[in-house]
User: Which sequence fits this backbone?
């Protein structure tokens, strides 16, 4: 038996509980992992609270990230004792995820834990840092350089936003952070933000085309915020869209795309090919200052996850939550 968080939905309702799970209950997979750390992401918050239709099958162990040690493997890529890392692939939604002491997975979802990171550091980065790195790479592929002007990061106090600021600043970009928590300005400046704006300036319905302000942007908010960001991007600039905290609709206009030739780059972090994952994690090893991790992340035990999930959904959690699943 091992400890894990199990989400169930039946005649008694929707609930998440910390409980004992038998290894026989684990879903099919060709690699069994003794999990050391997982994380608490926005998607996990939706699953744990039932605030969104994230979980597709029941019962479900949430947790879209995990790192741990291989205990059993019939995949030639992985041997017993290997330290492995997983981000995405629908775990915690359609396949049991990382918020338990054990996980059974498909080897094609895993990569070796990069030598640059300890297990705890890898989870402090997690899907949030990995997604931020994918977004930065997308901006670079579209020609962005530090001398082109300011880069906007929305949802700046969240995990993706925090890492996007830290990475961009380390690469020499002047970063403008958009946040609904102006009291956290000192934190954002520690990460490297040069300027901070209130998200209210972007979150309401706006004009189809606004004054050109930013060379590029990374948006984790969606809805009116994304539409207003696109309307304010400079000629031939790029917006990397990777989140929908405000909503999944896009109440925007084609004007910025046609009249300014901007690009809207969608950032999928769930099903990226292994080559993209390896590139992103290799870049994180060089482009992220690991001394920032204690500032961005906090660690909790598995027993604390259910109580903290509502705080995450209420926007009261700054940065990343790392979960030590063995306490």
Assistant:
């Amino acid at each position: 038996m091992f400890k894990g968080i199990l989400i169930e939905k039946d005649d008694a309702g929707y609930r998440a509980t910390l409980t004992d799970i038998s290894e026989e209950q684990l879903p099919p997979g060709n690699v069994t992992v003794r999990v050391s750390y997982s994380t608490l992401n926005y998607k996990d918050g939706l699953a744990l609270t039932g605030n969104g239709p994230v979980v597709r099958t029941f019962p479900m162990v949430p947790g879209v990230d995990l790192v741990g040690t291989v205990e059993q493997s019939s995949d030639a890529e992985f041997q017993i004792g290997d330290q492995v890392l997983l981000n995405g692939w629908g775990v915690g939604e359609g396949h049991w995820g990382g918020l338990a002491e054990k996980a059974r997975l498909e080897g094609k979802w895993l990569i070796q834990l990069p030598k640059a990171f300890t297990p705890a550091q890898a989870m402090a980065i997690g899907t949030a840092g990995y997604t931020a790195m994918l977004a930065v790479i997308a901006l670079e592929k579209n020609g962005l350089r530090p001398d082109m002007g300011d880069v906007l990061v929305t949802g700046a106090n969240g995990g993706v936003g925090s890492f996007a600021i830290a990475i961009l600043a380390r690469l020499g970009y002047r970063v403008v952070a958009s946040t609904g928590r102006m009291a956290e300005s000192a934190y954002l400046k520690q990460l490297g933000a040069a300027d901070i704006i209130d998200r209210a300036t972007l979150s309401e319905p706006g004009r189809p085309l606004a004054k050109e302000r930013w060379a590029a942007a990374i948006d984790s908010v969606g809805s009116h915020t994304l539409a207003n960001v696109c309307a304010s991007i400079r000629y031939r600039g790029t917006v990397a869209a990777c989140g929908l905290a405000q909503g999944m609709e896009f109440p925007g206009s084609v004007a910025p795309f046609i009249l300014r030739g901007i690009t809207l780059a969608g950032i999928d972090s769930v099903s990226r090919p292994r080559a993209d994952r390896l590139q992103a994690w290799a870049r994180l090893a060089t482009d992220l200052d690991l001394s920032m991790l204690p500032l961005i992340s906090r660690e909790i035990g598995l027993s604390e996850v259910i109580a903290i999930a509502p705080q995450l959904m209420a926007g009261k959690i700054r940065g990343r939550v790392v979960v030590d699943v063995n306490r």
